[in-house]
Amino acid sequence: MQISGNWDAPVNKGVLCKMGRFDPLYDERKRVVEPLLRESGRLVSVNWERAVEVIAKQIGSSKAKNIGVLASSYATNEALYLINKLFHDELKVSNIGLLNDTAPQIFKKQQSSLAEIAKSDIILVVSANPAKDQPVASFMIKRALNKGTRLIVVDDKEMISHRLLI
User: Fold this and answer.
1) CB under 8 Å to 88, separation ≥6 — which residues?
2) To bridge 102 with a disulfide, which of 8, 17, 64, 73 should be the other Cys (CB 3.0-4.6 Å)?
3) How far apart are CA 105 and CA 103, in angstroms?
4) 31-69 residue pLDDT tens
5) 89-113: buried (b, 16+ CB within 10 Å) or exposed (e) per residue?
6) pTM of whole model > 0.90?
7) Are strands 150-154 and 95-98 parallel, antiparallel or unpaired?
8) 71 membership: H or E segment, kind and range
9) Which of 25, 14, 27, 2 is nearest to 114 (CA)?
10) What is the rounded distance in angstroms from the CA atom of residue 113 to the CA atom of residue 124?
């Protein structure tokens, strides 16, 4: 089964969000409720102590540049502090990010539409990652860039503009 967008739709020009494009419509798999460890090519149920031991060993033997950490901004301040302390301060991991949006809503109502992106001469992206956080808008930006629209990225992080759209 496949879901396809309507390329003539005025709102999104046929671009589907990640969930509409890739998530399964129906999934019979059972939920994992205990740690699993791969042994001899098979997943084997283990206790939490064993799972944490294996994770600690693997993280400890990895280079910082090969580790990525995603946290939720809904986690407690204490948990976020400990994540930063362990991964940034101790393990020197630089690839740390949040899974969800933390910025407050600026406008009470929508200011424009996705269709306006295609009509733009210049697109300004400020402290955002459309490919990660707004995938449909990211596709619209890609389409606009293919038509000659210029892209300006303003961010306090070192970032290459094409990585925003991958």
Assistant:
1) 94, 96
2) 73
3) 7
4) 778 899 989 999 999 999 999 999 888 888 888 888 888
5) eeeebeeeeeeeeeeeeeeeeeeee
6) no
7) unpaired
8) strand 68-71
9) 14
10) 15
